[in-house]
Design a protein that fits this description.
The chain is α+β, with helices and mostly antiparallel strands. The chain has five helices and four strands, in the order αααβαβαββ. The chain has a four-stranded mixed β-sheet, with helices on both faces. Strand 1, helix 4 and strand 2 form a beta-alpha-beta unit. Helix 4 crosses helix 5. The chain is globular and about 55 Å long. The N and C termini lie far apart (38 Å).
Length: 178
């Protein structure tokens, strides 16, 4: 990854995180009560709401690579065969694990919020470990099961050769509830 492209991506990520930040006031940092302002109550309520309109948070099962138990049989076949329209692509080549996780999390949340269904995550095949797989290639399935990402994901599998084969993943996202 070129230095310019990396700096552009870092700036984009920084702007995303920075957009809602407001400076702290020096006085009464500890004594401030949440009941004082209605917008703070609203913010607290939003933080406590479950993802994707779920009524109650429920324990989601760990998704294995190629696991299609939460997906319609025909949709699952289309996912594995690469016949679903790709709504977005994220290339993690050249990123550190921390950068890749941040980008993956933001990307999937944005895609799910926009109602996208199938995305391609390119991690690369790599050959840096004893198993012959790259670090990011091993980590992506783990990251898709993290508590803030798993509620968005229905299934994932390796991509077809034309999309990167075992160096990329098709990820099927849950439908956005209105």
């Amino acid at each position: 990854m070129s230095k310019q492209k990396q700096n552009d991506q870092e700036n984009l990520l920084w702007e995303f995180y920075r957009q809602d930040i407001k400076p702290l006031k020096k006085k009464n940092l500890i004594e401030k009560k949440i009941d004082n302002k209605p917008e703070e109550k609203k913010l607290l309520k939003l933080k406590q709401e479950p993802l994707m309109g779920q009524k109650k948070p429920r324990q989601l099962s760990y998704l294995e690579l190629g696991d299609r138990k939460e997906v319609d049989k025909n949709l699952g076949k289309k996912l594995v065969k690469g016949k679903l329209l790709l709504d977005g692509t994220l290339d993690l080549h050249g990123m550190t694990q921390g950068e890749a996780l941040d980008y993956l999390s933001i990307f999937l949340k944005k895609q799910a919020f926009q109602g996208k269904r199938c995305v391609l995550i390119i991690a690369g095949k790599g050959n840096f470990t004893k198993s012959g797989k790259g670090i990011l290639n091993q980590k992506v399935p783990e990251w898709l099961n993290l508590p803030d990402i798993r509620p968005l994901v229905l299934s994932f599998s390796y991509a077809q050769n034309r999309h990167g084969g075992t160096g990329a993943f098709y990820v099927l996202l849950k439908r956005k509830k209105s």
